[in-house]
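quick one
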Amino acid sequence: MTKIALFEDKRIILGVCGSIAVYKAVDLASKLRQAGAQLDIIMTEAAQRFVSPLSFQAVSGGPVYSDMWRAEASGGLPSHIAHIALAEAADLLVIAPATANTLAKLAGGFADDLLSVTALAANCKLLIAPAMDGGMLEHPATQANLETLRRRGAHIIEPESGRLASGLIGSGRLPETPTLLGHIRRVMGLDGELSGHKLVVTAGGTREALDPVRYLSNRSSGKQGFAIAQAAIDAGAEVVLISAADLPPPVGASLARVDSAESMRAAVLEHISQSSALIMAAAVADYRPRDVAKQKIKKSDASLSLPLERSPDILMVVKAQREQTGYPMIAVGFAAESENLVENASGKLRKKGLDLLVANDISASDAGFAVDTNRVVVLDMDGGLHRIDLTSKAAIGAYIIERVGGLLA
Ligand code: CTP
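structure w/ cytidine-5'-triphosphate:
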C-alpha cells in the first residue's frame, strides 16, 4: 500500500462496534496507516468481545480508546478529556462496522460510551458502514435511524449482499477494505479544489470487432486513466469514467463501459456538455475493420487480408464541439510515442487544440502500457514542458489533476 496524498496531515477516528465483521476493520486500520493517515481508534465494549484492542494498536501504531471514564487523552492530543480532544482533532469520523445499536444511539443522540459521546462532540464529516444480519438491517427501526442520519448529512456506505454470519443470504455485509478506503477517499475529498467540477476521463484500449468473437485492440491496460479518475475524486470532482478496460472503478466514479472507438466517441459527446475538463487517457484505435463479419470467420486460405478504415478521432470531434459550446472547458490529451517524443507530442497538442498533453515513451518496459509506473513529459499550450521521472501512475494522475485544477482556477 503506497501513501495517499489526501491523507497527509489528516487525522481519522475509526470507530469500531461489536459485529462479526470487526476483523475487516483491523485490515482497514492497517491500510489507512500505511496510506499515511493518522489514526485514533475507538472500540465499543462489544467490539472488544470480538477482537482485542491490542490487534488495533499493533496495526494502527496509535492508541486505542474505549473507556469513557478515563479522563486523559494521549496520542499527542491537546485536551486531557478524551472525547473532546478526539472530536476536535478529527478530520473524519468513520464508524466501521456500525451495529444497529450504535446507529440507534447516533440517531437518538445518546452518549453513553466513548464512541457515541465523541460522535456527538465532533463537527467533522461522519461516514458510517453498517454491518449486521439482514433482518436487523431491514427492520423499520434500523432503516428509520439510517434515514435520520442521512438527513443530518452523515455518509452511509451501503452494506453488501452475500452470505451472512448467520448462514443466511442477504444484505448486511461490511464491504472489503478497498471499497471502504474508496468511500473514505471520496468523503475526505468532497471539499477539495475540484469540488463542483465535472470531469470526464477516458481509459483503456478500444476493441474493434472483426467478427462475433474476435477484435483488434492494443496493450493499454487503462491503469493510468483509472488513476486519474481516482485523483479527481480525491480532489472532490464529479467524475464520469468512460472505460474500455475491465478494472474495478474508483468508488464515487460513474462508470460508462464502452468497447469500440465509435462507442467511446458517442459516450464522450454525451458526457462532455457542461463539463470542466475532458482527459483522454484512452488508447483509441485509429483503424477498425471495414466490414464486421456476422458469423465467425473460418480459416481457408494461407493468408487473410482485412481491409481497415479510419475510426473517428475523438479529440478532433471534441475540438469542433468545444469551439461551438465552450465545453469541455479544458481538454487534456495523451500521446503514446515510440520515437521523437517531444516533437510529435507538441504537434498533437497544437493539432488537437489541447490545453495539456501528457506524452509517454511506450518503448520503455517500465513505463506506459500495462505496468503500474510511468515516465512522462507534460506539455502545455504556452510551450511549458515538465518531465516526470519514473513514478507511480497514481502520482502522475495526481499531478495531472493538480494542473487541471490550476487551469480551472
Ligand atoms: N485519440 C482520439 N481518437 C483517436 C485516436 C486518438 O481521441 N482515434 C486521442 C487519444 O486518446 C490521445 C490523443 O488522441 O489522447 C493522442 O493519441 P495517439 O494515439 O498518441 O495519437 P494519434 O492522434 O492516434 O496519432 P498517431 O497514432 O498517428 O501517433
